[in-house]
Amino acid sequence: xxxxxxxxxxxxxxxxxxxxxxxxxxxxxxxxxxxxxxxxxxxxxxxxxxxxxxxxxxxxxxxxxxxxxxxxxxxxxxxxxxxxxxxxxxxxxxxxxxxxxxxxxxxxxxxxxxxxxxxxxxxxxxxxxxxxxxxxxxxxxxxxxxxxxxxxxxxxxxxxxxxxxxxxxxxxxxxxxxxxxxxxxxxxxxxxxxxxxxxxxxxxxxxxxxxxxxxxxxxxxxxxxxxxxxxxxxxxxxxxxxxxxxxxxxxxxxxxxxxxxxxxxxxxxxxxxxxxxxxxxxxxxxxxxxxxxxxxxxxxxxxxxxxxxxxxxxxxxxxxxxxxxxxxxxxxxxxxxxxx
Length: 340
Prior knowledge:
Blueprint: H1 2-13, E1 19-23, H2 27-36, H3 43-54, E2 63-68, H4 70-73, H5 83-89, E3 93-97, E4 102-104, E5 112-114, H6 120-129, E6 134-141, H7 150-169, E7 173-180, H8 188-208, E8 217-218, H9 235-249, E9 256-259, H10 266-280, E10 287-292, H11 294-304, H12 311-330
Helix pairs in contact: 7-8, 8-9, 9-10, 10-11, 10-12, 11-12
């Protein structure tokens, strides 16, 4: 029964033309973004901002699931309605970020490993009782001189697989997020090489831990060059490189791939996702969806700036970005949508 439930949830998360909204920024990360816009870095400001997101009218038309942070899953609207209930009533599946962040990897300068496995079984049970139906764990892979090392890739792949197995044991769909970072001057080809190596390691470990691939979602980076690379490709070139890499490394049993935005500008993330669906949607075994954070939220946050009077305009901007990505899933996004 539990296996059937998580299979159905995994399918629902990538069904149709919807995608995931990542609203799981940690308190320090959220505060940094607030500070840059002059928004108070307080519990109440974070609660108000997240209420703005979850109460956005018609959000469920574009968003299938929302990834929450520990603080957020415990929060309520000003009227006292739990955010989890608001999401469920909107037809959005609640999820939860469960890793404890990336920490320095001993013996590997410049590299990180994600922690949080201690006590995870108990935390997953608690989140499931609160209404979460899926979870997320992020591993970060830096690209640089001599890195990533095999040790870093394997350590993160093992942690992702152990997390995924614990999720499925608890009746939650694991969103598996191995992110090759955009920082640096590496080329598109270098990103493709590392992304493929990382994905092969991750799926090797998922198999070793007995994870049911049909009941998970992969949340990878798109294959893109480093931000400081002198050659930046077209959306079609990113689409080709990304799908070629995925076809080599991701089993067909996985129901969906929900890309992270990784700091890409909002419009560019939409254009690249659109190019993948235009060129490959009928030729790949998995749904090509989105699991964006900043690429959906940032315009809304810039409009809101902590002012209650700006909430309607901010919600309109949030829905617009979600709707653009919904169009990109259909292969129907165009730059003209940005001026509509």
